Amino acid sequence: MPSNEDLNQLADEITTLCGHLDAAEFRLLELIRRFDEVAPWGLWEMKSCAHWLNWKCGIGLGAAREKVRVAHALPSLPSVSEAFREGRLSYSKVRAITRIANSLE
Question: How many CB atoms lie within 10 A of CB 36?
């Protein structure tokens, strides 16, 4: 059985890595937003950025649409964006926040 110290170290490593993954997800969404803004879909005969993400990145179409939606919502939510960029908020939390924030406008 691992010691408490070993378990705490393992827990710290997991949470740190999750923060890094969340920060990387923020960066991915920034790139998706920029890519969608130039809308080069005709180059690949795609209907949308979500279709391109599905085709090139293997992201399910529904999930891809959500990534594009969240990517476009983030600039209007600077404090959420900052926490996400720093890995203090997960994508799933940010996704939920953007739904609520957009419905309040």
Answer: 19
Taking alpha carbons only, the member of 38, 91, 45, 41 closest to residue 69 is 91
60: left (phi over 0), alpha (psi -120 to 50) or beta: beta
The tens digit of pLDDT for each residue in 15-35 reads: 999 999 999 999 999 999 999
Residue 94: which of 25, 8, 3 has the closest Cα?
Answer: 25
Return the DSSP state at 95.
H
Tens digit of each residue's pLDDT (9 = 90 or more) over 49-71: 999 999 999 999 999 999 999 99
Instruction: Judge contact between 70 and 95, C-beta under 8 A.
Output: yes
